[in-house]
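ok here's Acyl-CoA dehydrogenase, seq below lol
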Amino acid sequence: MDFTYSEEQQMLADSLRRFIDTEYTFEKRRRSARGGNSFDRAIWSSLAEMGVLGLGISSAYGGFGEGAASQLVVQRELGRGLVLEPVTPSAVMAAAVLSAHASAAQKDQWLPAIASGERIVTLAYLEPTTRYRPESARASAERQGEGYVLNGSKCLVWHGEVADAFLVTARVGGSKDVALFLVPRDAAGLACRGYPTMDGLRAADLVLENVVLGAEAMVGQAADGLAALEHGLDHGIAALCAEASGAMEKLIDITADYLGARQQFGKPLATFQSLQHRIAEMLLQKELALSMAYVAAQALDETDPAQRRRMLAAAKVTVAKAGRFVGQQAVQLHGGMGMTDELTVGDYFKRLTMIDPLLGDSDYHLQRFGEAMAA
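and the structure came out like this:
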């Protein structure tokens, strides 16, 4: 896989960076996050017009059919701007699941709408007692005639408040299968409660009480539910790694500018050798994270499941560790100001800190890496 930017990728990166610098200013982002929204419909429409939301969706459904290399370009720029909108859960993860596993009717109904920004779909697979392991799902799907009745709860649904539909995991009654269902937001018996997360985004808890669905709501076959979900999670991990590398890159720029402007003993802080060494260490960690983001993107084309799992797990752990280091160093290098809520450094630190628990923390992925090695 070639990660050298093509002319089209460079144009996309440049236009997206200009858009973030001019239309998605940090003041606007902060107002959105602190106002309890973390979502701007106008920004969402602009991202759709730029092709961000349909990047990985086939041209047959109104997208562009680009691969992981182009997605890395976009996610890196989104990370630099700490974009709040649900690009990763909807345009990356849900789109990947539907593209690979949905029926023709489901694709016709949802993929063009995701690409155009008209609809948002997100994954609902975490439960209070299952940690990161979807195979332990307790939500149930009991057969009723030709359809199913869903009962159970889901937590930490990424951008669940603004979603038009949810990809919900549930254990099919009378079998060991954990199936994936496409549940519309307006389904009778579905309740959604949203709340803010530490990094300025929003999540939601779902309660499903006798939610009646037709057989056509199942994504793929019942036995394929976990495989379909993992396909989406893999794409999400690769997107998170690219996003984190972009956020680290921008945070280092912010910190270097601060050290160049701040004076101590009549000289800029940037002239002190010990601080130069710390910036150099941050740069090394950022480059390591970017390299592992390339590894994660390459993993999406890997046909060997064990090798794919190893690559993604290694990337997730390495990027999370690098992000934590860069964030902590940036806060410390800003001194007492770094601990305040006035500077942008705190927002980047919070987001980089949350990269670890999202889609499986380091402990979980280290275990997956070991299991894949054993396999």
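fwiw The chain has a mean pLDDT of 94. kinda neat tbh
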